[in-house]
Amino acid sequence: MGTQIPERVKYISIQFTDLHGELRSIEYTRNAFEEIKSRGARFDGSSLGFATVQESDLILVPDASTFQRFPWNPQVGRVFATISHPNEKPFQADPRRILMRVGDSLRAEGFRSFLGPELEFYLLREGGVIDNATYASMEPQDKGASFRRTLVDYAQALGVNVELHHHEAGSGQQEIELAKNVEPVIQADNIQSCKLAADVLAAQQGVDVQFMPKIEKTLPGNGMHCHISLIDKDSNEPVLFDRQDVSQIGRMFIAGLLEHARGMSAILTPSVNSYKRLIPGYEAPVHICWGRHNRSAMIRIPSPMGTGVSHTIEYRSIDAQTNPYLCFALLLAAGLDGIKRGLTPSAAVEENVYDLPVEERQSRGIARLPVNLKEAIDVMQEDAFIRDVLGAQVFKAFVNNLRKQWKAYATAVDDPETAEITKWEREKYGIA
User: Fold this and answer.
1) Which CATH class is domain 11-91?
2) Of 102, 116, 227, 428, which sits most exposed with the smallest number of CB within 10 A?
3) Residue 226 neighbours by CB distance under 10 Å
4) Which pTM does this prediction carry?
5) What is the mean pLDDT of residues 275-300?
6) CA distances from 371 to 169, 285, 407 (A)
7) In the prediction, which pLDDT does 282 show?
8) Cβ-count burial of 288 within 10 angstroms (0-12 exposed, 13-18 middle, 19+ buried)?
9) H/E/C letters for each residue in the chain?
């Protein structure tokens, strides 16, 4: 690690993400970090489900390019890490490495990718939303504006490029949008940084920040829409669109996303609560289709600015409980699979999909996303593509963990199919 650590920094947090998306940290004193930064830091992988007890020793390898100081405590710095075996062989179940592998596959086919997520969350105080404002409200009705500004300041101090923020449609609901020209591994790091900063800031201000997909049945859900762009790695020219519309490569990329949408759901929307957001009547997508400017479609082509053409496609079913590294890996691998196999997408849907009769949706080949976590797990378990992208170890661990989650939920509630937000969900996902 070649980065010079500022004199004021006394501690270094080595950060990594477990299989299920939770950011973890082992913090070293400055002097100790100087000794281990080149060879890596040992940790117990079995405690986080990464490895067996008999082969538990794993190594965190700091990524020098990610060093930043915590803006809320400048005496502490942080670096993200990749995970290796003690013999320096890469640990294949590391979520960050899985995304790196997919990036390598894209480059081998002549492409580079960029991603731009939109993070939605609620601010609560004493169990209730902090205001009754709505989309793009201003102060004083918007009581989250100061929180968002400070969150953006924190995020930018951690190296995150934020484009904008605003109040969302739900009472107390917020959104920050990250820049759309950031490469996948860095952007996944950025999501983790933003969520950490939001939690720290919430504790400082005496509020509760909730990324939970559906906090109340009657309130809009929290999603994490993601904008995807692809360029030729040599010319740097966009390849998903040509001068007129979606390009042939773009159509194949979309077709890959559509084909694997059901199988990816258990990773992109990985909680019981996720599927209570994915219901008709709100902007959250339910049906697997694509369209131009159509917010009822799972994949949307945003309207271009001026007389130009779009450069991104927007995947809309994701929520922030996903592991961002695995989420991005699957999105990009699915799109690349569509390109390599020359897939053709179904016709674009420009109508409100919710208003289409069932028979018409069926005749147009518009399938539905899984209705609950159990169905999503069942579909994923039969999908060899998902297993190949994640690797057998991660795939098995994820399926087992999600089945335990569904079983615990189904055992604790009277009706597992209820659309109500249950006490079990509130306790599991953080609302007291």
Assistant:
1) alpha beta
2) 428
3) 26
4) 0.96
5) 90
6) 24, 12, 16
7) 78
8) buried
9) CCCCCCCCCCEEEEEEECCCCCEEEEEEEHHHHHHHCCCCEEEEHHHHCCCCHHHCEEEEEECHHHCEEECCEEEEEEEEEEEECCCCCECCCCHHHHHHHHHHHHHHCCEEEEEEEEEEEEEEECCEECCCCCCCCCCCCCCCHHHHHHHHHHHHHCCCCEEEEEECCCCCEEEEEECCCECHHHHHHHHHHHHHHHHHHHHHHCCEEECCCCCCCCCCCCCCCEEEEEEECCCCCECCECCCCECHHHHHHHHHHHHCHHHHHHHHCCCCCHHHHCCCCCCCCCEECEEECCCCCCEEECCCCCCCCCCCEEECCCCCCCCHHHHHHHHHHHHHHHHHHCCCCCCCCCCCHHHCCHHHHHHCCCEECCCCHHHHHHHHHCCHHHHHHHCHHHHHHHHHHHHHHHHHHHHHCCCCCCCCCCHHHHHHHCCC
In tens, the pLDDT along 189-206 reads 999 999 999 999 999 999
The three-point CA angle 143-147-151 to 5° equals 155
Task: pLDDT band for 305, please (50, 70, 90 cuts).
Answer: low
Q: What's the pLDDT at 400?
A: 94
pLDDT in tens, 55-76: 678 999 999 999 999 999 999 9
The amino acid that residue 226 corresponds to is C
Average pLDDT over residues 376-386: 97
Q: Tell me what the mean pLDDT of segment 89-93 comes to.
A: 93
* Degrees to nearest 5, angle at CA 281 with 278 and 285: 40
pLDDT at 243: 81
Question: For the chain, what are the domain ranges?
Answer: 11-91, 100-391
Please say whether the beta carbons of 299 and 316 come within 8 A.
yes
CATH ID of 100-391, from 3.30.590.10, 3.40.50.300, 3.40.50.970, 3.40.30.10: 3.30.590.10
Amino acid 200 reads: V
Closest alpha carbon to 302 in 115, 311, 176: 311
Q: What is the pLDDT of residues 9-47, one digit of tens each?
A: 999 999 999 999 999 999 999 999 988 888 899 998 887
Q: Looking at the DSSP assignment, which residues form a beta bridge with residue 287?
A: 368
